[in-house]
Prior knowledge:
The protein is mainly α. Helices cover 66% and strands 0% of the residues.
Amino acid sequence: AAVTPAMVVGQLFLVWTAALAILVLYFITLxxxxxxxxxxxxxxxxxxxxxxxxxxxxxxxxxxxxxxxLLSLLLLLKLLKRFSWTLYLLLFLAAIxxxxxxxxxxxxxxxxxxxxxxxxAKMEMKRRVLLGIAxxxxxxxxxxxxMKGTQYGxxxxxxxxxxxxxxxxxxxxxxxxxxxAPQAKxxxxxxxxxxxxxxxxxxxxxxxxxxxxTVEDLxxxxxxxxxxxxxxxxxxxxxxxxxxxxxxxxxxHTATLVETVPWLVMLPFxxxxxxxxxxxxxxxxxxxxxxxxxxxxIMLALFINNFGITMRIRMPAVLALLPFLPxxxxxxxxxx
Length: 336
């Protein structure tokens, strides 16, 4: 059979995980203050999100990553409103598989957590600081518990020290994500004649649209600050609202328009929803979702140069922004 029983079990498990992720998205929207109709609307959009449907239909880790990322955001929202050691324990336990499956999401979430804890948690300042110190010390342990301690260290220390730099970004975007034609192998046997011409071992030049790279002009370019800022701005646009039609290298890539066109339509309403929550309360815990998404987009813009990888890793960020939609569309999502 083309599909073994073991694979069916894996697919069913991930389907249930994806369903739980959408359920968490529903409760997040309710927790932000939307109506049940608005929460259902957001959950429906999340369930038909093309990248979500595509990647969670395979035996991949994306469904689990999204579930634990959204669960962490929901627990963070509750903790910022009212602290509970039980909720923090759940948050801590969710961080263990999250860092094991995709450490970048854990890193961005950890930064979001502590920025909003020290700045926005609804409790007296002295208790917030003292409790925050304890939370900071504890939340660095999941990478160690997830059996990554020897590789990444406390608080994913190795990633911050060795990977969060311009040199690593340039290596990834200008080297590892670019595809070159395979090099001709040098014959290990001696040539039959001394006059035989040596084999050509020079790699073919990089071709725009080659497999592994969507575009060739999103380089880091550290030669001057203007080039760096300009190229990172283009990369950020590519990550947030891309890929763009002129970046497609194969006819099948046009299928991504099913996702990007509706996303371009929804994004202004999402931004309006964020503004509405900000006007309601400038210290609203809901703004943590916007910071988390922004951190994910910045990380992808700096390090990734491949729209397939970008669309996979940005899913938690996109889903984290959807709950803002009801606040920009009150007539559509009202109970009346």
